[in-house]
Specification:
Number of helices: 15
Helix content: 25-40%
Largest sheet: 6 strands, mixed
Structural class: alpha/beta
Distance between the termini: 33 Å
Order of helices and strands: HHEEEHEHEEHEHEHHEEHHEEHHHEHH
Shape: globular
């Protein structure tokens, strides 16, 4: 399996190794003064901006593990959700720490964030839902954000010993919250509600423009799938960011896929004998290589599907160009890029 091309999915949830809470807390006390010592921060560019930011606080953000009150504007942010850094960047803040997507590095790589990061790079403090508590504590963050994540209660409790933590939304399953919900959670925690609503309104307008331009999409069923090894296929449920992206373009999703997924998972695992569930009006394969495409196309049971016979299937690269990555992230920064790339491909399918 290519570790550099596989999108992060809830199916990779695993038991997180227990952290030595006392050891981490001790490090936090040494690094952060127990989370109470004030660190010197640089003055903002203008006193008006500083006053406006200060006026937004305190704020209280509800989440899966309760609620967190943030008393003053956070300056040093660590993002532990797999795509959380995008919304933080869009709101004008560069996280000092972030987690990795299968060794893909969340900074400087993707076309929608290169300019936002510039020459700065965050400290990598974990991979997916495995966090290096010592590295996080050493960064002395004012706030940890974990929206598109599977953060466990034990991890939340450990982090809360030395910093403020806003965990994933409580109304949705892990990795299942709409991008609007996660963006609003992040914006509220940063005291930037107005800027956040502007970002969301602009993206909603982009989706609406596509729906208005292509009313035929609303009459079409669509599924998103992948395959990483012979004989094994995956289809994404309605709570996966990829499916959410295409539903907001106007397409109808297929409920049968949701019924095939295990509880708590945003993907249904399919054998070749189950590929008929993918016989939809538009089928989008998010693949990492030409070899994977050829293997899928050569599957005898796949060749029997009308979606394949009538050439209504799209094989979209995850990266190079980064089309699949863009709608896998499905953030306020990646969505415009994804729309620009995928709309002409979808429109060309008759």
């Amino acid at each position: 399996m290519s570790t550099g091309a596989r999108p992060a999915l809830a199916r990779f949830a695993r038991n997180i190794p227990r952290v030595a809470v006392a050891a981490v807390a001790a490090l936090a006390l040494a690094a952060c003064g127990g989370g109470t010592e004030k660190t010197e921060s640089k003055p903002s560019a203008g006193s008006g901006d500083a006053s406006k930011a200060a006026a937004a606080f305190p704020v209280t953000v509800a989440h899966k593990y309760g609620s967190t009150t943030i008393d003053k504007e956070p300056k040093k942010i660590v993002t532990l959700g797999l795509s959380d850094q995008d919304a933080v960047l869009a709101l004008g803040i560069k996280p000092v720490g972030s987690v990795d997507w299968f060794k893909e590095k969340p900074y400087g790589k993707w076309p929608w964030t290169k300019d936002k990061w510039g020459s700065e790079q965050p400290q990598i403090v974990g991979e997916r839902d495995e966090y290096n508590m010592e590295k996080i504590a050493a960064l002395q963050p004012d706030l940890v954000i974990a929206q598109y994540s599977g953060m466990k209660k034990e991890q939340y409790d450990t982090l809360s010993k030395f910093t403020k933590v806003v965990a994933q939304p409580k109304e949705h399953p892990d990795y299942g919250a709409p991008w609007q919900v996660m963006t609003r959670q992040i914006g509220k925690a940063l005291g930037k509600d107005a800027e956040t609503e502007k970002l969301i309104t602009d993206i909603d307008a982009r989706f609406k423009a596509v729906r208005d331009k292509h009313p035929e999409f609303a009459q079409k069923t669509l599924a998103v799938a992948d395959s990483f090894e012979a004989g094994k296929y995956s289809a994404f449920t309605k709570t996966d960011p990829k499916s959410i992206f295409f539903s907001e373009l106007g397409f109808k999703l297929k409920p049968e896929i949701d019924s095939l997924a295990k509880p708590g998972y945003n993907v249904a695992e399919l054998s070749a004998e189950k590929l008929n569930v993918l016989d939809v009006d538009r089928l989008v394969w998010v693949t990492s290589s030409t070899e994977a495409n050829d293997r899928i196309k050569a599957e005898p049971l796949y060749t029997k599907l009308k979606v394949q016979q009538e050439k209504r299937d799209l094989f979209v690269p995850y990266q190079d160009p980064d089309i699949g990555a863009a709608f896998s992230f499905n953030t306020v920064l990646s969505i415009p890029y994804a729309i620009d790339q995928i709309e002409p491909l979808l429109a060309a399918v008759k």
